[in-house]
TrEMBL record, chain A:
Domain named SUF system FeS cluster assembly SufBD core: residues: 205-439
Family: Belongs to the iron-sulfur cluster assembly SufBD family.
The organism of origin for this protein: Cuneatibacter caecimuris
NCBIfam families: sufB
GO biological process: iron-sulfur cluster assembly
A matching Pfam family: SufBD_N
Coiled coil start-end: none
Name of the protein: Fe-S cluster assembly protein SufB
Domain SUF system FeS cluster assembly SufBD N-terminal stretches: 84-202
From TrEMBL, chain B:
Pfam families: ABC_tran
Protein family per UniProt: Belongs to the ABC transporter superfamily. Ycf16 family.
Lineage: Bacteria, Bacillati, Bacillota, Clostridia, Lachnospirales
UniProt KW keywords: ATP-binding, Nucleotide-binding
Organism, scientific name: Cuneatibacter caecimuris
Start and end residues of each ABC transporter domain: 6-247
Keyword Nucleotide-binding: yes
The name this protein goes by in its record: Fe-S cluster assembly ATP-binding protein
Domain of life, per lineage: Bacteria
InterPro entries reported in the protein's UniProt record: ABC_transporter-like_ATP-bd, FeS-cluster_ATPase_SufC, P-loop_NTPase
Gene Ontology molecular functions: ATP binding; ATP hydrolysis activity
């Protein structure tokens, strides 16, 4: 019996095809107020936005890089081009998107998915949306789904201004400030009161340019009694220079509304994924997060939910898969600030081939949040003895009248279970993949079918060539 | 020779550097049912694991021939695809994997990916009825929350579906109530009669053998086969226990 088991790394070639960079416009690499102003001019920002950017830059310059998580030493922020605009204007017809960019998305299955099962699709290539389309019947319900730039000046300009970075303020942390200064692209969604969007909306983010940052902003408002499922997918080819993703997601769930926000993140393994996501939920509303993290070199991702109204609910279902050279620091936060609010976090993390996965949970129940319930359940599976898995729970409960539960399990893949499956004729690779897929099952069943299939393919791909 | 399904020649097996089996010889012919009995700790289960190819069980000497081929170097899945099956004494839990999905994957692995779905459904329903399993049982997660009886029935169900040439049943009757033993042995009987399968039944009790035809009985003590007889030997053990077969000195001392 070998002392150490070892699982090989995988072939990611379908995600790694890179296109020649043909951007018309690329900002010089460092970050100064002149550059931010230039970016603002290029984007035809309203005046308030230009000021907002400059203020954010100031905050950014005065803040320290956080030192509590994974090391960010490999990230040279002075040399990450903040804004790369692809050589095209946004299109509403898929056939008009330039061939090269189209091919990239075709390979990733985006238009096929739209034809089959989505109400609307936005596709962002580097810093700008290149394609955006919403089904007519959804638009007729009054649902707004547009790129952030148009939203800033269009019919909903006031609504955007009143919500933009109000939930995630630039002062939150250094990368929120950076986002405020250089954000570009992303989506704005508004679902009017009582409207149920029965098929999901989707955004797909693709970062092609090397050494660039993607800073898309997603702002979603689901009005009273409305219902929406929004999906975001992310990927990038691998370059030898670090890329940065510092997006920001702000979700407003009004009274008795429901929003499900699903993410499959499969960035290339040199990406620093420092994304900030936050939701505020009013009385009787529900936020459901489904989050799959497979890619990136370093991730710091802890979606936060503020349960502000009585009876508000949040559910977080997440899976993290950390392979060679990956340090995925993920988790979720919830603040119960009203009575009878409930939260449930259920996560799985898998690490192999020296990968590190850390799960942080934070539950805060404030004094006025009596009769609230919070449950955290996290399980980790390490596929070999070189990998690491940590669980860091934090709880701050300020009322006697709350029902709190926490459960954590960390384990290695069992050789005996692998033998059991092999004794029925399954190869070692298949046996391990089945155990891992089974471990991930309660997360994958929360995903839309084609994403569940993609996730299982990713697991299979990750397990390929594994030896015991 | 050609009718021999399994031939074990002078097999020695180590577990964690300690020799447990000391030169086992055993031959099983087509359609034969062999019973391997012996007191706890004799090494019976070790033989089952070593035959199936558990990497924790290191073969230090001897040969295993299965259907005319030496298999000591083959992995468990290769042995399984060649027609060997081991019913586990303590089958492992695999959360998130349904019993049904598992059997289907195992079957298609054995058949190179081809599986006729309708026939499969029919066969599964028949086997489940024989074992008195509920139709929804197949949707449950593999061995998760199964009772002792359900675990053993699930093992026999897998055996019936995978149709091995040789099935090794490791303590399939342990921890079962009378009714469950009867149901399980009906499954084993079906394997004997309908499939003409060869069997190596490892047990330290005789309950499962009451309704089964037995061709040979072997008694293992301290990692050696000390006696081989026919089905009547089972009755003798039933009456007298294992003491007559134990090391005479040990018996005297006790």
């Amino acid at each position: 019996m070998e002392e150490k088991t070892f699982v090989d790394d995988i072939d990611r070639s379908i995600y790694d095809i890179k296109n020649e960079e043909k951007d018309v416009y690329r900002l010089q690499e460092g970050l100064t107020s002149a550059i931010v102003q230039q970016l603002s001019r290029e984007k035809n920002d309203p005046a308030w936005m230009e000021l907002f950017r400059l203020r954010s830059l100031q905050i950014y310059n005065n803040m320290k890089i956080p030192d509590w998580g994974p090391s960010l030493d490999g990230l040279d922020i002075d040399h990450i081009a903040t804004y790369v605009r692809p050589n095209t204007k946004m299109k509403r017809k898929w056939s008009e998107v330039p061939e090269e960019i189209k091919e990239t998305f075709e390979r990733l299955g985006i238009p096929q998915a739209e034809r089959k099962s989505l109400a609307g699709v936005g596709a962002q290539y580097d810093s700008e949306l290149v394609y955006h389309n919403v089904r007519r019947e959804v638009a007729e319900q009054g649902v707004v789904y547009t790129d952030m730039e148009s939203a800033l000046t269009g019919e909903y300009a006031d609504m955007v201004r009143n919500h933009f970075m109000k939930l995630v303020k630039p002062t939150d942390h250094k990368f929120a400030a950076l986002h405020g200064a250089v954000w570009s692209g992303g989506s704005f969604v508004y679902v009017p009161p009582g409207v149920s969007v029965t098929i999901p909306l989707q955004s797909y983010f693709r970062l092609n340019a090397p050494g660039a940052g993607q800073f898309e902003h997603t702002l979603i408002i689901v009005d009273e009694g409305a219902d929406l499922h929004f999906i975001e997918g992310c990927s990038a080819p691998k370059y030898n220079v670090a890329n940065l993703h510092a997006g920001c997601v702000e979700l407003y769930v009004r009274k008795h509304a429901r929003l499900r926000y699903s993410t499959i993140e499969n960035w290339s393994k040199n990406m620093y994924n420092l994304n900030t996501k936050r939701a505020v939920v009013e009385e009787g509303g529900t936020i459901e997060w489904v989050s799959g993290s497979f890619g990136s070199h370093v991730s710091c991702l802890y979606p936060m939910s503020i349960l502000k109204g009585r009876g508000a609910r949040m559910e977080f279902t997440g899976i993290t898969f950390a392979g060679k050279g990956q340090n995925l620091d993920t988790g979720a936060k919830v603040v119960h600030s009203a009575p009878e609010t409930t939260s449930f976090m259920n996560t799985r993390s898998i690490s192999k081939d020296g990968g590190i996965s850390t799960f942080r949970s934070s539950v805060v129940v404030s004094k006025g949040a009596g009769k609230s319930k919070a449950a955290v359940s996290c399980q980790s599976l390490m596929l070999d003895s070189q990998s690491r898995s940590d669980t860091i729970p934090a709880m701050d409960i300020r009322t006697q009248d709350a029902d709190i539960g926490h459960e954590a399990k960390i384990g290695r893949i069992s050789d005996e279970a692998v033998f059991y499956l092999m004794s029925r004729g399954l190869s070692e690779e298949d046996a391990k993949a089945m155990i891992v897929s089974g471990f991930a099952e309660n997360v994958s069943k929360e995903l839309p079918l084609e994403y569940a299939v993609e996730m299982n393919n990713l697991i299979r791909l990750e397990m390929k060539g594994s030896i015991g | 020779m050609s009718s021999q399904i399994l031939q074990i020649k002078k097999l020695s097996v180590n577990v964690e550097e300690k020799e447990i089996l000391h030169g086992i010889d055993l031959q099983i012919g087509k359609g034969e049912t062999h019973v391997l009995m012996g007191p706890n700790g004799a090494g019976k289960s070790t033989l089952g694991y070593a035959l199936m190819g558990n990497p924790r069980y290191e073969i230090t000497g001897g040969e295993i021939w299965f259907q005319g081929k030496r298999i000591e170097e083959e992995s468990a899945d290769q042995r399984a695809r060649a027609g060997m099956f081991l019913s586990f004494q303590n089958p492992l839990e695999v959360p998130g994997l349904s019993l049904n999905g598992f059997i289907r994957s195992a079957l298609s692995a054995g058949q190179g990916g081809k599986l006729r779905f309708r026939e499969y459904r029919k066969e599964l329903a028949r086997a489940m009825e024989l074992l008195q399993l509920d139709g929804t049982f197949g949707e449950r997660e593999l061995n998760v929350g199964f009772s002792g009886g359900e675990k053993k029935k699930s093992e026999i169900l897998q055996m019936l579906m995978l149709k091995p040439v040789l099935a090794i049943l490791d303590e399939t009757d342990s921890g079962l109530d009378v009714d469950a033993v009867r149901t399980v042995s009906q499954g084993v009987e079906a394997f004997q009669k309908d499939r003409k399968g060869s069997l190596l039944i490892i047990t330290h009790s005789t309950r499962i053998l009451e309704s089964l035809h037995v061709d040979y009985t072997h008694v293992m003590v301290d990692g050696r086969i000390v006696t081989t007889g026919d089905g009547a030997l089972v009755e003798q053990i039933n009456r007298e226990g294992f003491e007559p077969f134990m090391n005479p000195e040990a018996v005297e001392r006790s």
